Amino acid sequence: MITLLLFAMIGLGAPQETPAGKPKVPKDSIELSITGCLTGRVLAVSDVRRPDTESGPPVRAKSFRLSAKGDLMDHIKEQDHHLVEVTGVVRKSALIEPGVKIGNRVTVGGGSPVAGSAGSRPLPPDPIPVMDVWSVQSRATSCGG
Length: 145
Known about the structure:
- Helices cover 14% and strands 34% of the residues.
- By secondary structure, the chain is α+β, with helices and mostly antiparallel strands.
- It has a domain at 24-94 and 125-145: CATH 2.40.50.
């Protein structure tokens, strides 16, 4: 009886994963499958697919910085300048564009500083969203167009 109870308690402590063996997607993130050209750790997007197209923000990012652990990161480095399909998660907040949305297609944001104004500095580049990678599949040996 005690042995049965111990086995039951050990089973409760197992990490939660989805049935397909992939890690569970956090509530503040969205799962994406992206096809694009890999340059170093940056993936230039050519196609984005979401498993659930009814929820989450629209994906308009032009590139993603890839993050992975161990052997998977080594595989990403081997695919430099190749066309690949990457599956992973990105935080929803990284995909939201700044500005105020008016209607369906109009977004109003702050303008760039006027040239010659006192104390103006060049704007820093937009941050590149980070994607935590689950899998990488090669699609072609080069990104040639």
